[in-house]
Amino acid sequence: MKKYIYALIIICFVYSCNDNFFDVAPKDQLSDGIFWKTQDDAKQALVGCYSDWETWDNILWGDAMSDNLYAQFYNFQMIAQGTWLPTSGLSYERWFSSESTGTGMQWISYARIRKYNNFLSKIESVNMDQATKETYKSEVRFLRAYDYFNKTQYYGDIPLVTKVLSIDSIPNTRTQVAEVQKFILDELDAISSKLPVANNISSGGHITAGAALALKARVELYTGKYEQAMVDAKKVIDMVCYELNPDYRGMFLPGNASTCKESILTVNYINNYITKNFILQMLLPQSYGGYSGLGATKSLVDAYECTDGKTIGESSIYDPENPFKNRDARMDQTFLHPGMVWNGKIYNSLDRSLPDGSLNLDLHSDVNACRTGMNILKYIKGIPLSEVVSTYGTNIVVIRLAEMYLTYAEAAIETGKNKDLGLQLINKLRTRGNLPPATELTRELVRRERRVELALEGLRYWDIKRWDIGATVLNGSTYGSRDGSVNMTTGQVKWNNSYIKVDDRNFKPERKYLLPIPQSTIDASGMKQNSGY
């Protein structure tokens, strides 16, 4: 047992080191003499592959690149503002270990790709059960495909590396994005039949056939292969191991791993393995001991329908003086707003002082208070302040069944096929939001449902990109809550005529929604930079 623990420590240390963009040489030779001998060795190496395949900050903060959120930390908002440059630094790299590079920048590193390629090479010589070997290989091939998809989404053309390279073999040629996407789809197609059909509960967080097909459907949707996306989304929908969770908010809170059959793919929290999960402290309001890292925008708030199934611009029951009344139930399960009662307390981000004369820690203009005045609620629960900095475990959902419903419905719109079924699927999500069923499947409906259903799940920026609506939604000033004053007895808000402004955004179409290759990489490789930088 000591041998395996020692080997795992070596693997996790070697594989977790941060790398320059093209540093893809293997660095595990020191452990080869005692490792890669048995099935247990392969299993421990598989654990190493899962150790950092995705991060919670990439999922949650990804929406801050869009019109959904404003982030006062991590500089994600610089991408939405159009101010991110090849030489831009990341303010929070000083806070976290070198593994955490954030702002999508973690996808520019090839450390994971090297790790996956090394695993796939070394496991071939291990004496172990062949079926188990194929399952392990399929899981790692999925992780590699997932990583490559994120790379293409952020950077477009990228080097496609499928072999373990020597230290002096550094790729400096970017592969056409269509070729990389074909590789991803071929990989997912090949492994989907080799993985078990199981939900996230029974699989224990391992990659499944449903995850492979769901990612394939996502890739197909984002690359305009609508008919194929419809086919693969339907395969996942038809798997009896998945079902919608009736509790929208509950599936994002601690304990979801043992109860949520909607989750298809998650970043799993392991108790006593991670000593501190920073999600809670980063998202909680300052009055609860948090940093209020993300705030919902007015644009996101306005996207939620009223309970009569109409938008705020169409509904007769929408009251601008009571803007959060009679709205989609998912709204109050996603973010806090002034006057809302949560955890036995009225949330107030608008007043300088409280009735007892004390300073209001949640005033939107204060450091560590939510700058938009509407603090994120999804993923967090109210707990005693003494527990904020201790272990808080919640799985981060990467793909869930609702996304497959939305994928199918959008593909139905774009192909003009099976629109009746697409509408049925959309209405299942609307029912959970306490909305009446829609009577017609339209592009506007699907896009609005996708935005509110998947808010804070890291997909909005990519949706803006594929719909090419950046010139409309990423231009101009960004606002949060309407300003005013909160009655701390009743929760009633007396609104004034201004909104909280958080930034100005300047959409640059010549960048084609892509991030820049870091200048240090350009200088070292001579590679051509993405357009617009």
Describe the structure.
- The chain has 533 residues and is mostly helical.
- It has 20 helices and 8 strands.
- A two-stranded antiparallel ribbon has the order 1-3. Strands 2-6 form a two-stranded antiparallel sheet.
- Strand 4 and strand 5 (345-346) form a beta hairpin.
- The longest helix has 26 residues, at 130-155.
- The protein starts with a helix and ends in an 8-residue tail after the last helix.
- The model is unreliable at 1-30, 90-104 and 272-276 (pLDDT under 50).
Q: Can you write the helix and strand succession as a string?
A: HHHHEHHHHHHHEHEHEEHEHHHHHEEH
Shape category: globular
Question: What's the β-strand tally?
Answer: 8
- Report the mean per-residue pLDDT as an integer: 87
The radius of gyration is 23 Å
Please count the helical segments. Answer: 20
Give the DSSP E fraction (strand runs of 2 or more residues). 5-15%
The biggest sheet, with number of strands, parallel, antiparallel or mixed sense and barrel status, is: 2 strands, antiparallel
Distance between the termini: 52 Å
Taking pLDDT < 50 over at least 5 consecutive residues as the criterion, the unreliable ranges are 1-30, 90-104, 272-276
- The portion of residues assigned to helices is 25-40%
SSE class = mainly alpha
Sheet with most strands: strand arrangement? 1-3
Features:
8 strands; globular; mainly alpha; disordered N terminus; 533 residues; two-stranded antiparallel sheet; two-stranded antiparallel ribbon; 20 helices
